[in-house]
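debug: dumping io for the single-chain case to check the tokenizer round-trip. Nothing else runs in this session.
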Amino acid sequence: MDVFTSKRNKIGLFFLFTLLLSACQNTNNINHEELIVDENIYLDEYFPNYQDVKIETQNEVFALDDRMRLMVKEKLMTERNVKKRSMRLLKHIFDQNNIALEYSSTANISAIEAYNSQRANCLSLTIMAYALAKEANLDIEFQDVKVPEYWVRNGSYNMLTGHVNLVITKPKSPHAHIYLGSKILTIDFDPFATKTSFPKVKISQPYVLSMFYSNKGAEALVNKDLTKAYAYFKSATLMEPKFSSAWANLGILYKRIGHFASAKQSYRHAIKVNPENYTAMSNLALLLDDQNDRKELINIRRTLKNQRENNPYYYALLADEAFYEANYKQALSYYRKAIRLNNRVHEFYFGLTKVYYALNENEKAQSAIARAISYNRIDSIDLRYIAKLDFLKQQEGSH
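debug: decoded output
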């Protein structure tokens, strides 16, 4: 996840999956020399107890317990056909009569915890599915899905959501090359992403673990446990130095403690690792603005404007900020701009609902939430929207 400090000194957390983990990026064009890290970027002396924080190992995050192994043995391994076995796994994950998993954006947990608690965020759901597939002897890989910058509001925080999914491939034969068409199926916990042709890049298990650590660090930062946040952010950068968002989050932490030089160093390293990490650029721009560093600031703002002027989610972010500041007319304008750019995103209509309700325009609020319901495809969100619609109708009837 990436963290972001506004001029109001509020922290906005930009989570990977969802995501993850906040934005993953293509690292194919980065050479080893460019990834040399100056050890002075770490500030261990400011967090003397950080090594006391228990960081989950890769084995702990991806491990299965006896219950999970028994499920794989009894329900999956009895099917010899790889494609049918893959479909059984998919059905077991999504079928309400089996795991019946519930999405929770804050549940950044291990595979075992996700399976047994039946709630997890997208990253943890994906980790759990990967671990089960490996136990079932399926060839499975993580993919970073290049979704546009996409923020959601959580109280006083903005969260930037990246996306990761899984692809199960045909077994690799020693006597044949695998060409296009080797994919059996994709496991994706975001219905929107599965229906959209976003570019995808294969990423490694350590890369995903770095995302997991970064999310844990962001959670700790929200909870003001700065030592824990540092421990996880440092672990994320050490696990996978090419995960740009972890460096950006480390910069946010440094800004939080007033170590501005190190914050700028971390942001710039994040951008060096991934020149398309626009969240890191935004964080750096805010810091440069605070320090009246105009030359670099102008170049960054020009880049950000060019990249974001046609991104509906950026205008939704501005709308959320305006709404948070009780500037409802401005929020309405930004949400309408977002909808003009993409009129099929349920969160935009939910944003409109909140604005109309704040403006005492109940009938318009009902219409907006009805549109949100029509475009949403996630049952748990549907229930929340329907409850909101029922509430608005009750309010209308009481007047």
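debug: round-trip ok. The first helix runs from residue 58 to 62.
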